[in-house]
Amino acid sequence: MMKDDCIFCKLANGVFDTNVIYEDGDFTVILDVNPATRGHALILPKEHYANIYELDDETAGKAFRLAKKLSTQMTEKLNCDGFNILQNNGEAAGQTVFHFHMHLIPRYKDDKALLQWKPGKPSEDELKALRDMLKTN
Ligand code: 5GP
Ligand code: ZN
User: Fold this and answer.
1) Which ligand neighbours the alpha carbon of 48 most closely?
2) pLDDT at residue 2 tops 90
3) Which string of b and e fits 54-92 if b means at least 16 CB within 10 Å?
4) 1 in a structural domain
5) Is the pLDDT of residue 115 over 90?
6) Which residue's CA is the nearest one to ligand 1's atom 12?
């Protein structure tokens, strides 16, 4: 289902014109209008899901397969040196458009396009407590 006030619903379903590099029954892939690097693209499902928590397993699987296929093809075509797949959920994580999307970001040697995080130094006890809290199957 499309959400009326969602820009990515409109772009993914051809309501607004944009630069499409791939389309199938489930997804539209477009060039980011404010790219981090040359070739930065966005995988948009045609259905509206606000974030990863709303995504069904089948669509999640298809999205990652598509990310693999396109990052491989884009690396060849752009001759980039590396590739980030980025996916933000929630404002605190940097999400600004609340329709699930995956960033395909070609990287070029020394492009300094994305921030590196400052590595933390948790104690062994803290890591063990976290492991016990998060362990799942
Ligand atoms: P987020 O911060 O939500 O993970 O990423 C949103 C991305 O969408 C940003 O990189 C931003 O440049 C891109 N974006 C926002 N509005 C538009 C638009 O109207 N067209 C296109 N092509 N990209 C957009
Ligand atoms: Zn939407």
Assistant:
1) 2
2) no
3) ebeeebeebbeebbeebbeebbeeeebeebeeebbbeee
4) no
5) no
6) 34
- Six-digit token string for 74: 């884009």
Q: What is the pLDDT of residues 19-74, one digit of tens each?
A: 999 999 999 999 999 999 999 999 999 999 999 999 999 999 999 999 999 999 99
Query: Which of 97, 98, 102 maximizes ligand 1 atoms within 8 Å of its Cβ, making it the mutation to test the pocket?
Result: 97
Q: Which residues span the domain enclosing 30?
A: 7-134
Specify if 2 maps to a domain.
no
Counted domains in the chain = 1
Distance of CA 94 to the CA centre of its chain: 12
Counting from 1 in the atom list of ligand 1, the atom nearest the Cα of 101 is 4
d(C-alpha 75, C-alpha 3), whole Å:
33
Q: What is the CATH number of the domain that holds 100?
A: 3.30.428.10
- Calculate how far, in angstroms, residue 133's C-alpha sits from the geometric centre of ligand 2: 34
* Residue 101 falls in the annotated catalytic set: yes
- Whole-model pTM: value is 0.97
Out of 40, 48, 101, 103, the active site residue is 101
